[in-house]
Amino acid sequence: MIIRLDTSGETPLYVQLRNQIVMGIGRGELKIGEGLPTVRQMAEDIGVNTMTVNKTYAILKNEGYIEIDRRHGAKVSPKADLSGRFQEKVESELTLLISETALKGINRDEFMSLCASVYDRLNLSYAGGAV
User: Fold this and answer.
1) Phi, psi for 111 (deg, rounded to 5)
2) Residues 6+ apart with CB under 8 A from 102
3) 63: Cβ contacts below 8 Å, ≥ 6 apart
4) Among 54, 26, 55, which residue's Cα sits nearest to residue 39?
5) How many CB atoms lie within 10 A of CB 25?
6) Distance CA 13, CA 6 (A)
7) 44 pairs with which residues across the strands?
8) Of 4, 41, 64, 68, which is least packed with CB atoms within 10 Å of its CB?
9) How far apart are the C-alpha atoms of 49 and 47, rounded to whole Å?
10) What is the 3-state secondary structure (H, E, C) of 36-74?
11) pTM of the entire structure?
């Protein structure tokens, strides 16, 4: 998996890294049980501070995307978070996104078509519960 971060962008690097890893898991580029690089190795590979990677891994662990074991390091977790808290997060983010697209003149049908197109293009390995 290739990770690209925008060091001049407004989004914090740890958030960009988190998003890249989540998308990699969703697309199947990172498999369940697959180990992630150590904090030090990841930081060196992508050119960021180890604290950035450490914060990212802590967030991913808290969200249930990875497990961290002192002996075996960080691995992609087989657990899916289907809690109400996650559902609320999705609804909140969709509300913002739909509001923004409506303000830019994109109607419901165009939005749904775009969602379907992006969803299909991502080839998500976790989609529909298939793991």
Assistant:
1) -60, -45
2) 111
3) 81
4) 54
5) 22
6) 8
7) none
8) 4
9) 7
10) CCCHHHHHHHHCCCHHHHHHHHHHHHHCCCEEEECCCEE
11) 0.77
Residue type, 72: H
Q: Quote the CA–CA distance of 68 and 58 in Å, as a whole number.
A: 9
DSSP state of 35: B
Q: Are 123 and 28 in contact (CB under 8 A)?
A: yes
Take residue 25 and report the two structure tokens written for it.
């898991």
Name residue, tokens 């802590």.
58
> Up-side HSE of residue 74: CA atoms within 13 Å toward CB?
22
Report in angstroms the alpha-carbon separations of 130 from 18, 95, 125: 22, 27, 7
Condensed to tens digits (0 to 9), the pLDDT of residues 23-62 reads 999 888 999 999 999 999 999 999 999 999 999 999 999 9
